[in-house]
């Protein structure tokens, strides 16, 4: 027996991960697939490297939105899979290959079995950064086709296949990227008194930044500062003049985000004085928290529990970020976790989701769209 076509599509997409707003091959692949579907019920528009597909309903009174992200991550794959990434240093390590193949499965079914309402499929670029959802929402085409409700999923390595997880209200955190450049005075390793060593300054800065979480954030609330990149220096016997840091901040409230940022700025000021250097700070992209519309999330949980063999788990909020949060800010909607049972987690070079989850997710989304899209409201 051959592979399920959407598993096969997932494998094709897995081979060609591309970073945010560079998803040219991905866009071409998706458009080529869309051309194989009957065109009479479908309108297709592109937006940057993204795609919007409106599937016309039989007698529409509303539009249901379904969103998938399409970008990959900057990480070298180590899964050893036969269909591993062909793009050096890039990998679909956050499951967007599965997200896309599921979206195509749901779209295909909806074209062949139209519901009363219109269904808008959104293939959104740059979720990992710098963020495609916010500018896409502001685009003319999105403004014209704005759905009345929207939903999306994200793979969850920690849950078994056959489980979905979500909750009403807050699901994912507010995020802000963090880019820090320290500039001092380089020199000979043997003459530290004539230089300002940025490796030493950066080390102090990294440790002090972590005290914001332990000393400034209410222990009953939560926040994260993670630095994922530290680069500096040129040789083992040269005092480093420059160090570059990159990271991310996560909080569950805007107030905490403001507080953490203020403390980062205070600490940077102290390091500048203490280590006689200059430091530049840039917050990069910021994502709005994913907040699930209570009524829709509850209705979805009950519907899935009652009409599929999936297990519905009510989960806690997570410190992951998602620019889908801008969509749930502007459109009533929700996101859910899809169990894919991988030993290695999101953003890991060995992430290996169980592909059996693809069919489960297509079935859940299709049934829900049939229910919502044929329901008068
Ligand atoms: C689901 C997921 O892993 N999303 C990313 C979103 C990244 C946002 C931004 N680039 C940042 O790092 O702040 C995540 O890392 O949570």
Automatic annotation (TrEMBL):
Record: residues binding Mn(2+): 94, 96, 128, 154, 347
Keywords per UniProt: Amino-acid biosynthesis, Diaminopimelate biosynthesis, Hydrolase, Lysine biosynthesis, Manganese, Metal-binding
GO MF: metal ion binding; N-acetyldiaminopimelate deacetylase activity
Domain Peptidase M20 dimerisation as annotated: residue spans: 180-272
Pathway given in the UniProt record: Amino-acid biosynthesis; L-lysine biosynthesis via DAP pathway; LL-2,6-diaminopimelate from (S)-tetrahydrodipicolinate (acetylase route): step 3/3
EC number: 3.5.1.47
Keyword Amino-acid biosynthesis belongs to the record: yes
Active site (catalytic residues): 69, 128
PANTHER family (UniProt xref): N-ACETYLDIAMINOPIMELATE DEACETYLASE (PTHR11014:SF98), PEPTIDASE M20 FAMILY MEMBER (PTHR11014)
NCBIfam families in the cross-refs: amidohydrolases
Membership in a protein family: Belongs to the peptidase M20A family. N-acetyldiaminopimelate deacetylase subfamily.
Protein name: N-acetyldiaminopimelate deacetylase
Species in which this protein is naturally found: Peribacillus deserti
Taxonomic lineage of the native organism: Bacteria, Bacillati, Bacillota, Bacilli, Bacillales
């Amino acid at each position: 027996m051959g592979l399920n076509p959407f598993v096969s599509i997932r494998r094709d997409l897995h081979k060609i991960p591309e970073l945010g707003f560079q998803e040219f091959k991905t866009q071409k692949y998706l458009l080529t697939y869309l051309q194989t579907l009957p065109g009479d019920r479908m309108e297709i528009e592109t937006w940057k490297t993204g795609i919007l597909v409106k599937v016309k309903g039989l007698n529409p009174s509303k539009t249901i939105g379904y969103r998938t992200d399409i970008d990959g991550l900057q990480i070298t794959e180590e899964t050893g899979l036969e269909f591993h990434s062909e793009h050096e240093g890039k990998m679909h390590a956050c499951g967007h290959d599965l997200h896309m193949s599921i979206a195509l499965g749901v779209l295909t079914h909806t074209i062949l079995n139209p519901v009363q309402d219109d269904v808008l499929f959104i293939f959104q670029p740059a979720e990992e950064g710098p963020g495609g959802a916010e500018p896409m929402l502001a685009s003319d085409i999105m403004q014209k086709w704005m759905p009345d409700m929207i939903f999306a999923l994200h793979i969850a390595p920690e849950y078994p296949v056959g489980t979905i997880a979500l909750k009403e209200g807050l699901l994912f955190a507010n995020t802000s990227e963090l880019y820090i450049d320290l500039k001092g005075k380089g020199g000979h390793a043997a003459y530290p008194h004539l230089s300002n060593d940025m490796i030493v300054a950066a080390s102090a800065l990294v440790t002090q930044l972590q005290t914001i979480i332990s000393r400034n954030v209410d222990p009953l609330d939560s926040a994260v500062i993670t630095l994922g990149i530290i680069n500096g220096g040129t040789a083992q016997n040269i005092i480093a003049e420059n160090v570059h840091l990159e990271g991310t901040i996560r909080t569950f409230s805007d107030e905490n985000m403001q507080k953490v940022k203020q403390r980062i700025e205070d600490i940077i000021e102290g390091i500048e004085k203490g280590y006689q250097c200059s430091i530049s700070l840039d917050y990069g992209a910021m994502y709005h928290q994913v907040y699930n519309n209570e009524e829709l999330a509850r209705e979805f949980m009950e519907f899935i529990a009652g009409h599929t063999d999936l297990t519905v788990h009510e989960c806690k909020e997570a410190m992951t970020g998602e620019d889908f949060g801008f969509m749930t800010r502007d459109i009533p909607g929700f996101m859910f976790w899809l169990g894919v049972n991988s030993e290695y987690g999101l953003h890991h070079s060995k992430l290996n989701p169980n592909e059996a989850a693809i069919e489960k997710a297509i079935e859940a989304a299709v049934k829900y769209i049939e229910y919502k899209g044929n329901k008068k409201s």
